[in-house]
């Protein structure tokens, strides 16, 4: 059970993936709404939102894991644990690509 929390375990990757999915959708949504790039979003109050979301989602992900509930046991249909891991990986790459693109472009992507 606690082996899942090691660096190479599924816990950290699943939690980081969930945070990346929320972060990517939020970053794009804010850009579409008011044109702020990712760096401006962070500078204008994004840090407290990031910390709060990170704590909430980490706790929500760790509690079932520590109780022995595995995401694989709750997978059915198109919403599988593998799909969640892949979506999280793509969201992590998307956030990095968004940040690099905005840095090179010098402003918001949209």
Walk me through this protein's architecture.
With 110 residues, this protein is mainly alpha-helical. 72% of the residues lie in helices and 0% in strands. The chain has 3 helices and no strands. It has helices at 10-34, 38-66, 81-105. The longest helix has 29 residues, at 38-66. The chain is elongated and about 45 Å long. The relative contact order is 0.19. The model has no long low-confidence stretch (mean pLDDT 81). It comes from Abeliophyllum distichum. This is Early light-induced protein 2. It is a multi-pass membrane protein.
Give short descriptive properties of this protein.
single chain, 110 residues, mainly alpha, 72% helix, elongated
Q: What's a concise summary of this model?
A:
One of its GO terms (cellular component) is chloroplast thylakoid membrane. Keywords: Chloroplast, Membrane, Plastid, Thylakoid, Transmembrane, Transmembrane helix. The chain has 110 residues and is an all-alpha fold.
